[in-house]
Amino acid sequence: MLFLTTVAPWLLLAFLGQQVSLSSGARNKHRGADKTVTAAPDKAPRSGDKSAANGRGKFSINNNMQCTWGAKAVGDAVKLSVKCEDREARIKGGVTDIKCEYNGKPQSCAGYKSNNKSFWKQVARAFKKLQGKVCSDESKLVRAGICKRAPRDAHFKLDIMSSVNLTQSGEPETHLPPPPQARATAAAPVKPTACTARVNHLKTAEENCSGSWASVCNFFLTMLQSKDC
Asked: For a Cys-Cys bond, which of 18, 131, 138, 171 suits 158, CB 3.0-4.6 Å?
């Protein structure tokens, strides 16, 4: 009996201590779970591709149409927006503006992130080589040389549905009116004057008067002509 009264309090204290330890462990476990759930959003990967921000450039088509292009990350892909303008065509007529988009997934190319500047320089050269096929030929891919062994979707392909060509007719040229044509007027026949007629009569008289009468005929005809003229 004495043994039970002595040991019983110690057994009770041990039991209570065990319960307190189990309760403390359960609380710490719940706290750790709460911390894990709270920290999860901070560790989530961010969307967007910072490498695409470096993609932009200029090129010309046939030395008349000036073009610009820029890259933008769209989900897991990259979109290239191309805009071209020909100011001279606004006056003379023809294609004035060209717009289109190219899509690709360059992330599958190792050189896209390891050597990003060289990648975009090679894309700029690829646009210059396309020339008149820009925004018109969807079979022509815009390729970077460092991505030769990359999958096909790593290169940029034209979205033909986004291609837009704007044309404008030239302004009408101002033509000067032709100079008035000179009207050909027929010259009126010159009528013989009285003096001309007299001269003709004189020649006739000289031909008809012969011999000693020739001087007499000339004298009278000359007098008649001087009175009329």
From this structure: 138
